Amino acid sequence: MFSRRVHTFPSTEKYLVQSRRRYSSIATTISHQNGFPHNQTPPKPSRSSEIPPLSIMPMPLLLKSYFITSILASPRIIKFFLPLLNTLANSKSRLLNPDRNPVLHMIVRKFIYDHFIAGENSSQVRARVASMKKLGFSGVILGYAREANVTGGVVQFGDVMSVTKEVGETAIREWRDGLMNTLSLLQPADFLSVKFSGAGPLALHALINNLPPPPLVSESMHLLLRAASAQKARIWVDAEQQDLQHGIEQWTINLMRIYNTGPKALLYTTMQAYLKATPSNIKNHLKLAQAENWTLGIKLVRGAYIATEKRELIHDRIEDTHVAYNSIAANLLTQSFPGIDVVVNGHGYGNGIGIGKGYPRAELFLATHNEDSIKHAYAIQSTRIMQGEKTIELAFGQLQGMADEISCSLLQLCRKQSHEMEVSGNAPGEDRGVVCLEEEQAEAKAEALKPKAYKCMVWGSTQECLQFLLRRVRENGDALGRTGCWVRGFRREIWRRVRVRLG
């Protein structure tokens, strides 16, 4: 199980301490007593902060989440369940493929698919997205589940060298059409999740050999990015196995040079904190963004392919991954990433290269189920906002069907900030004209303090989505280790509601 301790760093520890002291009403909403310094007693929570985060969830969803999470919390069931899920996700047999066996399809949908997946068609997906927005999420990240499987350089998508150009381009068109359909289901501020491996053999061949994208892949990405820009949605490119990752990053950088030239990032790249080289990789991305004047969008994850990566590339201990993840987030939020310098009025400061350029523009999306990382990042950002210091845009995301208590904590905090902004706006004043500017500034701060919470989900055929779930289970092994805590949280909320109903 992962450590529950909040990691602090010399350059950012003061922000955590200050935020806990000055803005305890915020911290108590998303943290527990062990989140405070040892010499400080946390303040008594306000009445609103005593309401459990899971109170936001509708009762049917709460009961279903309790049932599914209870299964995930049982090591014996998981030991039996994962091999079975792997068989169903990869079987070509008519009997064991849920897309070909109607009875199996119904069972899988009832007990697994519907809880974790957005749907199989546009109407199902739109209904699920609407339900997330109704709960209060800032948006969703929606992906098309199809992805090639590459393990240790061996492509399982068929022998790419033997595939004809016609067959390869057909696969690219199917991938493009699936993504365009997915994009059509999104609203402003939502994200489209893209995996280049889903484009099939021609894309895989180019990625493995560090070649430019096939012309049809390039045309498809330009089409997607223009369409996303028109509807004010955004796109992130997922990280994949190291056999493909160098090519993925180069393709993404070339697109960011074109589409991220404004103050906001249209395209995000993904960085994996479990890789030892990731801090250096981010530094190089920041230098490029600084030198070429574009905005770097980063989705930060711990890592999704630990079972297939070369072991020497990964941190030796999980604690090292935690420290790397939190320090990367802290350095980005405080705009103090090691190795990046800026010049103000001819005077340079910093500790790297890049003299003559302003600090690179960046945005950060923390895709994590780790509560400590969320508290750590939000404490830094909220303190800097309250103190009028520069920071960057920050958002958080969890997978659909997982880490619901964390997601609901973020939603609850968002509602609290909205309520406080509404109350302050209605407060009587001696001279409305005099205080107008101050009120606008206060409202802007309150709006900035509202955490942006997202749910990540995919849609597609049942078997394709089972493959997605298997990858996410492997990626979130630490989250599975904490399912016991989630089960207890669901149980407490269910009993709380029962007691309320009984008076």
From TrEMBL:
<dbReference type="InterPro" id="IPR015659">
    <property type="entry name" value="Proline_oxidase"/>
</dbReference>
<keyword id="KW-0285">Flavoprotein</keyword>
<feature type="region of interest" description="Disordered">
    <location>
        <begin position="28"/>
        <end position="50"/>
    </location>
</feature>
<protein>
    <recommendedName>
        <fullName>Proline dehydrogenase</fullName>
        <ecNumber>1.5.5.2</ecNumber>
    </recommendedName>
</protein>
<dbReference type="InterPro" id="IPR029041">
    <property type="entry name" value="FAD-linked_oxidoreductase-like"/>
</dbReference>
<dbReference type="GO" id="GO:0005739">
    <property type="term" value="C:mitochondrion"/>
</dbReference>
<dbReference type="GO" id="GO:0004657">
    <property type="term" value="F:proline dehydrogenase activity"/>
</dbReference>
<feature type="compositionally biased region" description="Polar residues">
    <location>
        <begin position="28"/>
        <end position="39"/>
    </location>
</feature>
<dbReference type="Pfam" id="PF01619">
    <property type="entry name" value="Pro_dh"/>
</dbReference>
<dbReference type="GO" id="GO:0010133">
    <property type="term" value="P:L-proline catabolic process to L-glutamate"/>
</dbReference>
<dbReference type="InterPro" id="IPR002872">
    <property type="entry name" value="Proline_DH_dom"/>
</dbReference>
<keyword id="KW-0642">Proline metabolism</keyword>
<keyword id="KW-0560">Oxidoreductase</keyword>
<comment type="function">
    <text>Converts proline to delta-1-pyrroline-5-carboxylate.</text>
</comment>
<dbReference type="GO" id="GO:0071949">
    <property type="term" value="F:FAD binding"/>
</dbReference>
<keyword id="KW-0274">FAD</keyword>
<comment type="similarity">
    <text>Belongs to the proline oxidase family.</text>
</comment>
<feature type="domain" description="Proline dehydrogenase">
    <location>
        <begin position="127"/>
        <end position="481"/>
    </location>
</feature>
